[in-house]
Amino acid sequence: MVDNCRLFEKQIQIVIIIFAYLVTEEMELFFFFTFIFLVVDIRGMLFGKIGYECIDQKVCTDEHSECRFGRCYCKSGYDYSYKEAHIACVILPKLGQQCEIEHDSRHQSCADPHAVCSEGLCKCKDSYIERNKRCVVDVKTLHENCISNHQCITPFSHCNDENKCVCRAKFSEINGECYPTKYNCLEGEPILQNSQPINCSIVGRQHLHCPEQSYCVPFDEHEGQWSCQQVTVFHGICCPVPKREIILKPSCLVGKPYSIPDSCPTSSHIRHKDRFIPWQDRPCCPRACPHGYGKFGNKCYQINLLPGDLCELDGQCACGFCTANLQGEKACQCQPGFTELYGKCHDERCFHGDPAIDSDTGAIVQCDSENEWKCPEDYSCISEFGLCCPKIPIYT
């Protein structure tokens, strides 16, 4: 959103370096420092612009923008549009409304990110269907027709060349589900119980349910939402701890590695996580579920759903749980201790670093949009939480 401004800042920095080089002892330094002052003042000029700092609603100067968490954003119902070097908040046409094809790749033609402008109207893209006035994936199970991998939601399935959802290579179909034909431990065979690999979980740094001299090797992960400070949970099976003197050959726990070693398409694959495989050697392995879906039991469910989105399981909701709403439908609600703000669940904490502490009392400094001055230097007031939080760096 602030790419243009970042580029401008980089250009200014280069000019400063060149200008400083040209300054000689014989030149008047007055002109040089005047130039530096003007460059530094650019940051002040960006205050209140979309993507940059603000204090309250009055500060955001761009039309249809508002101050949220100390930054200016477009108001709900508006989308971002680039106007030359500026960003504007505009209303884009919804599904079924008239539209014009946008040739600038930075711009959307329609409000829904999964819609396109076709024959002058906003319509859902191929492999998407309209549901509740939104474009959602037209999901398929085994043997159903498909045109894209992300439609196949049977775990470890994909859309083959014949446009059918089938089990991936090195998986076999049993009772409508895809099971690996082999588990690949770094050394030896999986630890068995009742002739089946022992299932395990990794919660934070803890490896659960594995016996001694074995560890949990994940084949998939649940993609949580960072703002909840959730501990990522990995699910897998127990493998023997490899001997240190053995040269290990990294491999996927299940399935076949992606054919291009240096590439890993996130829509269908994921970098395999094994504590004995160095980061740079991690193979690209098939996802159990398409990107944006999580594996619960033997099914793939959409995850990171927002408050009000229909759901079936608690694990689908970002910072929330799945419960019946007033209409009797199951929908996501925020967890206790979280507040729904701007369509998402938030707990009252700084997004970056820790809140300011009063050096005399040791208490957290309280603030609001009318008392921004209470915050120390390099802190800004997040009025929604009443906290002085470290300013988030914009320039890198």
From TrEMBL:
InterPro entries: Cys_repeat_1, Lustrin_cystein. Keywords: Membrane, Transmembrane, Transmembrane helix. The chain crosses the membrane at residues 12-40. It comes from the Eukaryota. This is EB domain-containing protein. It comes from Trichinella spiralis (Trichina worm). The lineage of its organism: Eukaryota, Metazoa, Ecdysozoa, Nematoda, Enoplea.
